[in-house]
Specification:
By secondary structure, the protein is α+β, with helices and mostly antiparallel strands. It has helices at 49-64, 86-90, 155-163, 167-176; strands spanning 5-17, 27-36, 42-47, 73-75, 93-102, 107-108, 114-124, 129-137, 144-145, 150-152. Strand 8 and strand 9 (144-145) form a beta hairpin. The chain starts with a strand and ends with a helix.
Length: 178
């Protein structure tokens, strides 16, 4: 009986999004980590290049920890045939992220910094679209991205939602952004 979690690294259709491991926004995601729990079930997360390298190092370290007993993670180089299609089940996004709307007025944070605010969206396999906000600093610094802010029935409805976002909403969204 397996007592440790299994971890596999896999490819991912490249996209700009939030790393689901470190939560850093605006990252190019090219890989995924799939973790099987010893009592059943699996979860897949899309990861940035830094997290990809970190997970690979952890896998290497766990494999090298043989002197202290068995490694606590088991590495699978290939997905089991039963979960070959796990990305299409777990990750239902299709196409590339798309700029939906850019606000003409800048957003001023509490510290006085100005940000250009953009609504980005991405289609889903069922035809709906998700949307999030990107806060791009005008004077340099880290871009901040919110988690998903909305799900709309199609791209046109996402645009309609974006054009109705009020300044008060942006203040709360900025707090949610990382």
């Amino acid at each position: 009986m397996q007592t440790a979690a299994s971890v596999a690294m896999g490819g991912l259709t490249p996209r700009v999004d939030v790393c689901e491991l470190c939560s850093t926004g605006g990252e190019m995601l090219r890989a995924s980590v799939l973790v099987w729990h010893p009592r059943g079930g699996a979860i897949q997360v899309a990861v940035c290049d830094r997290c990809t390298a970190a997970v690979r190092r952890l896998i290497a370290l766990a494999g090298a920890a043989g002197s202290g007993g068995p490694a606590q993670i088991l590495v699978r180089t290939e997905l089991s045939p039963a979960v070959q299609d796990v990305e299409s089940v777990v990750v239902d996004l299709v196409g590339e992220p798309t700029l939906i709307h850019e606000f003409t007025d800048p957003f001023r944070a509490a510290d006085g910094r100005l940000y250009t605010v953009c609504v980005w969206g991405q289609g889903r396999a069922d035809g709906t679209w998700i949307g999030w906000l990107l806060f791009v600093p005008r004077a340099g610094g880290a871009t901040r991205r919110t988690p998903r802010e909305t799900t709309q029935s199609n791209r046109e409805q996402l645009y309609y939602w974006a054009t109705g976002v009020e300044p008060a909403y942006l203040t709360g969204a900025f707090r949610r952004a990382s």
